[in-house]
Amino acid sequence: MSVVGDALAVGGYRLGWGAVRRLPERAAYAAFEQLADLTVARGGMGVQRLRANYARVRPELSDAELDALVKAGMRSYLRYYCEAFRLPDRTAEELRASVRVEGDGPVREQLRRGRPVLCFLGHLGNWDLAGAWGARELGPVVTVAERLKPEAVYADFLAFRESLGMTILPLTGGPDVFAELRGHLTSPVVMPLLADRDLTARGIEVELCGHRTSMAAGPAALSLATGVQLFPVSIHYEPVPGSDWRHRIVIRFHEPVEPPSSGTTRAKATALTQACADVLGAAIREHTEDWHMMQRVFL
Predict the structure, then answer these.
(1) 73 Cβ neighbours under 8 A, 6+ residues apart
(2) What does the pLDDT look like over 38-73, one tens digit per residue?
(3) Where are the domains of the chain?
């Protein structure tokens, strides 16, 4: 991207962020829903990839049913962005009302005992909202973010996430991220890592919803290196009871996965990652519209 293009992208992004935060809540969500419908109607590479990914995990759907699912998926994806733009203005009470949590008992017990919690996430629901909730309700949150272009947009997203109480480490362009993450796992932190898409070319090949894919090796490698339990976590949207337009996220902490007792480190990492992929695959099939995967993911 050129310098002028970078400046336009940054300026448009910041203008949009400010405008969305000033809109009344219902008007903001309605505008993003309309934008989602327009995006689907126009098509484009991202929409085509979303449809292709949905077709892989839901092969039983007719063309019309798949079209409806893509429309719902884009609305869910744009809802994520609308929420992200407005998230810094939410009060603690509004944040709690935006989340319903399941299975957090074992996680809270780990933290109460002074132990860290390592989580394997997919691009489901709103992981930024989940991170902000976790930082307020569970404990310090440490995670990794993909470095975006232009750099100023990445810096804005970094500042935004850190303003929510999260510690963000860059995936690339900084110190050894694995070593830094391992260092943080010596204290009672919550470490959610998006892992359903490999960004390093060093991923682990597993099966997701019956198809081969490559997932990030980091969560399993960290669990094996530190002995910290690995919890698969799924997130999806549900309507807020009593409202005809509001949604909240449901964060579900699944049972921790355990490595096999024998085998090489790579074999154990593959087994852990496959176990997480099985959990996420079931969640993706159940809440496909909340899987925001507009990039190639299947091999």
Answers:
(1) 50, 54, 288, 289, 290, 291, 292
(2) 999 999 999 999 999 999 999 999 999 999 999 999
(3) 3-290
